[in-house]
Amino acid sequence: MDIVRHPQTGWIEVITGSMFSGKSEELIRRLRRAQIARQKVQIFKPRFDTRYSDDHIVSHSDMRIPSQQVADSKDLLEQVLPETEIIGIDEGQFFDQDLPGVCNQLANMGKRVIVAGLDQDYLGKPFEPMPQLLAVAEYITKTLAICVVCGNPANHTQRLVASQDRVLLGAQGTYEARCRHCYDPELSKAGPAPV
Ligand code: ADP
Ligand code: ZN
After folding, report:
1. What global pTM score does this model have?
2. 91, 128, 138, 186: the active-site residue
3. Less CB within 10 Å around the terminal CB: N or C of the chain?
4. In terms of CATH architecture, what is 11-143?
């Protein structure tokens, strides 16, 4: 990070990339360091992301940190305590369009806001509100997974089951990391051919 001159200055950090790229691990790493430094931290995730745990952020590698569930970005803003210095938010792509405005408001209040989220959906399209958040963030970290087909850096999330829902919470085998070459958006729409 750059040297911060004004003690009350807040900012927005975004960690973004495909599934399995290490976004949650990186978010947890930053939040743990803040907790070790005895900074006041609050951690949020959207209410319907209950894949692994409803009161923790959990990475695919089973790193975990306690979190609060919120219904939407307005609820998140209301839950932030005045003394909180650092705000962590996971699964930013599952929030509404007000998330960038709420993050801006919190950063303007002097808080450090760290958001992790998918940059693209299963069709490779920008996943709102992450693009809007990227535009207003001071710091952006793009994470890449490893393509499970060829081993190249993977920037895509391949859906392996037939569904055209934008939000399809992933159980084991629902998604895998693929590179540009091995990613197939048509397969994402239709699921794998029957064998
Ligand atoms: P994200 O939040 O971006 O989905 P996580 O932080 O939850 O990612 O998980 C990252 C971890 O996922 C890695 O450290 C590794 O243990 C595991 N993983 C599973 N598949 C892959 C893959 N194809 N490439 C890289 N890591 C993978
Ligand atoms: Zn590949």
Report:
1. 0.92
2. 91
3. C
4. 3-Layer(aba) Sandwich (3.40)
